[in-house]
Amino acid sequence: MRLQAFSGAVLALVLFFMGGLATAAPYAAFVMDARTGEVLHSRNADTRLHPASLTKMMTLYLAFKAVESGQLSLDKKIKTSRNAASEPPSRLGLKEGMRITVRNLIRATAVKSANDAATLLGEAIAGSEAKFTAQMTAQAKALGMKRTTFKNAHGLTASGHLSTARDMSILGRHLMYDFPDYYNLFSRRTTDAGLRTVPNTNRRLLANYRGADGIKTGYTNAAGFNLVSSAKRGNKRIIATVFGGRTSATRNARIAELLDMGFGRAPTKYAKGAAPASPSSGSRLAAATRPVKSDSFIIKAPRAAANSPRPKHRPKFDEAAIVMASVVLQSMEAEILAAAQANAARNAQANVGLLAPAAPTLETENTIVAAVTVAHTQRGYIEPEPDINRIVSRADTPRGGGWSVQLGAYSTRYKAQKTLLRTALADLGSLEGAHRKIIGAKVDGRHLYRARFVGVSESSARKACARLKARNKPCSVIQPGS
Question: 267: Cβ–Cβ under 8 A, 6 or more apart, which residues?
Fold first, then answer.
C-alpha cells in the first residue's frame, strides 16, 4: 500500500510538472547595445507574444510626451473614473471619484505597475481608454515597433494585445533617449504615489545587479514573467528583454546572463566618426555603428543616458507653417509684455501690494504658449498636438507663502517651461504645492523669461535651492515682492 501510495504521489508530481511545461509561456529574448542599437543577441525576438505590464512603458511614454508638450500638468488632479477604479490588481487603490495628481499616477504606473493608475493616465490623455489605445498603437508604429498592437493601457491579457521582445527593447531605448530627465523613475526602489509609498516591482534586480537602473517588469498567466532591463557599466549601456520566464527568480537570473553577455560583446571604444546613434523610426533599429580600427586614434563612446540626443524620426513640415508660427509667436510675445506693463500700471494706480497677483491675462498667455508649442513642433523639438487652440497653461495664484525659487532666465519661453517641468519631476519634496510661473523681462534690450516656482515658504525655498545646487543646478531664492 505504501509503495502504491508513493507511486501515485510520484505520478501526480510528474503530471503537475508536465502540465506546467505544456502551459509555459513562449520564451523570447533580445539584447542590444543601447548606445548604437546594435543587436547583440536575439531569440524568437519577432514572435508576437503577450507583453503584460511591459505595456505600461508605452502608457508612460505618451504621459511624458503629454507633460512635456503642455497637454498635462504634473500637478493637475484627475478624477478617478469607474472604469479605472474597477481594474484588477496590481492596483494603487483608487476609488471612483477620488482625485489624484498626474505626478502620482506616473509614479504608481512606473514603479508599482498599478493597473488603475495606468488606465486613468490613458483616460486623462485621450479622453477614453479606447482612444488612448489607438494612440498607443499609432505611436508604436511611429517608433518602428512594427509588430505591436495595444488594446488597453495596463497590459492585462486581451485579444490582439501583442508585442515582441524586439519591439519592447526599441520602446525601452526610446524612453531613455526621448525622455532622459524622466528615466530616473525606473530606478527608484520605492516612491511616494500620493495614497501611499509603493515598492518597485523590479527592486530585486535593481538591488542585486551592478549598474541596473530599470526598466519594467510584467506578468500574466498568458505572458509568463517578462522584463525589459537596462544597465550601465563604464561607458557601456545594455538593454536586455525576456518574455516567458517561468518565475521572477529565473527571469531575473536569465536577464543577468543576457546583460553579462551584452557587456561582454559590446565594444568599449569607437573609432573617430563612429558616434552612437539615437533611435529612429522605420522597419528596423537605427543602423548599428560597429567599431573599426583606425590608424589615427580611438575615442570612447559618450555616455548615452547622460547626454541623449533626440531621435531623428521627427516629421517634416512645410516652411510656410514654420514662418506663420514664428510670426504669431513674435506678435504674441509683444502683446503679453504690453499687457504685463499695463497690469503693473493699473496695480500701481490702485495702490495694490506687491504680494497681490497681477490681473490675469489668461487668453493672451494661452495663445502664446500655444504658439510656442506650434513653433517648436514645426522645428522638430516636440511632437505636434492635435488642437493648438486648447488651453495648455493657466495663471496660478501663489499659495503657502510669498517666496519663490528662480531657476534662471532663458532666451525663450519654451526653454523656461522645459526647465520647470524637468525640475518638477525631480521629486523635490520642498517644492510640492508650488506653482510654476514664467515671468517675461527685458534686460539690456533682450527679452528673457525667468523660470520660477512661486508660492512657497522661506524654508521650503531655501531647502529646494540647496538641493538643486547640490546637483549643480542654478538656483536663487527670491523674496516676496521681488
Answer: 33, 290, 291, 301
How big is the CA angle at 169 (ends 37 and 71), to the nearest 5 degrees?
Answer: 105
d(CA 264, CA 471): 32
d(CA 64, CA 179): 7
- Are the C-beta atoms of residues 403 and 461 closer than 8 Å to each other? yes
Write the single-letter amino acid at 337. L
CB 218 within 8 A of CB 52: yes
Report helix, strand or coil for 426.
Answer: coil
* Close Cβ partners of 208 (under 8 Å, ≥ 6 residues apart): 252
Mean confidence (pLDDT) of the chain: 76
**pLDDT digits over 141-155, tens only?**
999 999 999 999 999
Assigned C-alpha cell, 357: 497677483
Domains of the chain: 24-271 (3.40.710.10), 315-395 (no CATH), 397-482 (3.30.70.1070)
What local confidence, expressed as pLDDT, does residue 481 receive? Answer: 79
Asked if 8 and 208 touch (Cβ cutoff 8 Å), the reply is no
The residues annotated as belonging to the active site are 53, 56, 113
Least confident piece of the model among 31-45, 262-276, 408-422: 262-276
Tell me: pLDDT of 401 over 60: yes
Cell numbers found for residue 330: 513674435
Helix axes 129-142, 115-126, angle to 10 degrees: 90
Helix or strand holding residue 82 (H, E): helix 82-85
Give yes or no for a contact between 32 and 241, defined as CB atoms under 8 angstroms apart.
no
CA distance 471 to 90: 34
Lowest mean pLDDT among 44-53, 240-249, 439-448: 439-448
Smallest Cα–Cα separation from 426: which of 395, 369, 396, 469? 469
Query: What residue spans of 293-390 are helical by DSSP H?
Result: 319-349, 362-378
174 contact partners, CB below 8 Å, separation of at least 6: 61, 143, 279, 311
pLDDT digits (tens, 9 = 90+) for 441-479: 888 888 899 999 898 888 888 888 888 887 788 899 998
